Amino acid sequence: QKEVEQNSGPLSVPEGAIASLNCTYSDRGSQSFFWYRQYSGKSPELIMFIYSNGDKEDGRFTAQLNKASQYVSLLIRDSQPSDSATYLCAVNYGGYQKVTFGTGTKLQVIP
Amino acid sequence: DTAVSQTPKYLVTQMGNDKSIKCEQNLGHDTMYWYKQDSKKFLKIMFSYNNKELIINETVPNRFSPKSPDKAHLNLHINSLELGDSAVYFCASSQDPLQETQYFGPGTRLLVL
């Protein structure tokens, strides 16, 4: 059973701080990794994807991948109340779109 | 313009009924999916179609039957609804089966009484 694990939270950070969201996965053969944001009552939307070890930055978001340790993280700099949402980690184990989602981490940014 | 749309948005029904959920995408994508998100927010893939052909069929009860009349539409029919079917069902699409960015529809909130 291929698994993707996240701390369900809630993770509370003050406005302007860095939010750090973590995700671990079970299969070393995993090829690509995604972070989706889901506001309450809404559908998931893709924030970032990463394929290679290291960091990938996009605006206030940085995805970090460490395949040796089998974890992927998402950093949100200068957190805003509008960042309050559930963040879903997803892993593609290869082949036809077999994307497995974690249960998500709920982030609360306190004004 | 809505990229991936689903109807209905809400569905409340009695146990034992049969219901359908429709999905349409106007992105020109070849691949479409159905996901189920339960009360604990766990999002699990159910089916995937590429160009009207079934390519992923996860372990779901055979009461669930997807149908793809063309590559822009993927419908989900559920027979003999059970309490445990209550969830949010999301349709999604991607450009092709190996294209990993998926675009989700707004979801259909199903409540079985």
Give a short overview.
Chain A has no helices and 11 strands. By secondary structure, chain A is mainly β. Chain A is globular, with a radius of gyration of 13 Å.
Overview of this protein structure:
The complex is a heterodimer of chains A (111) and B (113). Chain A is an all-beta fold. Helix content of chain A is 0%, strand content 54%. In chain A, strands 2, 4, 5, 9, 10 and 11 form a six-stranded mixed β-sheet that branches. Chain A is globular and about 40 Å long. With 113 residues, chain B is an all-beta fold. Chain B contains no helices and eleven strands. Chain B has strands at residues 4-7, 10-13, 19-25, 31-37, 43-50, 53-57, 64-70, 73-78, 87-94, 103-104, 108-112. In chain B, the strands form two sheets. In chain B, strands 2, 4, 5, 6, 9, 10 and 11 form a seven-stranded mixed β-sheet that branches. In chain B, strands 1-3-8-7 form a four-stranded antiparallel β-sheet, with no helix packed on it. Chain B is globular. The termini of chain B are far apart. Chain A binds chain B through residues 32, 34, 38, 42-46, 49, 86, 88, 92, 96-101, 103-104, and chain B through 31, 33, 40-45, 48, 50, 55-56, 90, 94, 97-98, 100-107.
